């Protein structure tokens, strides 16, 4: 029988408004988070793990809605690469999300849901909220920040904007800014949500009708970008469902169609459509160079942290060239950095799946 990792689920209500890049301030911000392991008396063993777009704070514990293992259960735990016998691991739900942290589904000051009245947020705003959480926990400097995909964006943002807060930065399968293609894929998903009649301009919370169809299509479109062509071909090819295929129709004739529909429908059980709109927009706005005068190297000028950047050879969403741009910027300011491109068949999702070489990289970097 598998051992369930002990975790603590908590929330923090920030004691002052959170200033946002938009110029607005978000009042009464709640941050939901989980912790694993024990914090050392000198608080030197804390690791902050940032989640990706559709992730949450349940990084290594069963999800309360789906019952599935945490999204990085294979990486965090006793004797695992992020070893909870040694490290105190924190994972917080980002603001704008829907798993306990303040977001569009939260109550505004007038008692109604925010909906589309929720202020525009950025990746840097998410990081500001998590730094406020660290302050509430009394943690000055982290042993490391770790993140993949959007989590990697947060790790880089923390290193650039709060350089004294982390001794190590591990950024996996990520990018310093979104390409036009990335933005285009996200816009398809957003339009699918907003085209659903049940979206109702974002004011659907008390209507009894949620834009599940639009959100499912958004998830399907995004999920394609997380996989590799070789991986899809190997897993599904052009195989039909185990039934007599219709010549044409709206039923899922191909196995890959059925798989994508399942991914889309399952997603609607645990995620909020408005949160998807806000978080994808935050990712699209992210441009670490633009935040620091247009030169990526200037984002890391004077950072004392050690960096490790990891990419995957089949990741076409954030290809290796994006990671190399980060490494070149770090080299330009003489920041200590190691870089590796790993071979894996799973595309962008490789950082979430069984890739033993990634385990070795994570273990070596955090324990070195």
TrEMBL record:
Active site feature: 149 (nucleophile), 315, 348
Binding site for substrate: 219, 349
Catalysed reactions listed for this entry: L-homoserine + acetyl-CoA = O-acetyl-L-homoserine + CoA
The keyword RNA-binding appears for this protein: no
Pathway: Amino-acid biosynthesis; L-methionine biosynthesis via de novo pathway; O-acetyl-L-homoserine from L-homoserine: step 1/1
Domain (AB hydrolase-1): residue spans on this chain: 46-353
Listed EC numbers: 2.3.1.31
InterPro entries: AB_hydrolase_1, AB_hydrolase_fold, HAT_MetX-like
Single GO MF annotation: homoserine O-acetyltransferase activity
Taxonomy, superkingdom: Bacteria
UniProt main location, coarse: cytoplasm
Name this protein carries in UniProt: Homoserine O-acetyltransferase
Annotated organism of origin: Croceibacterium selenioxidans
Gene: metXA
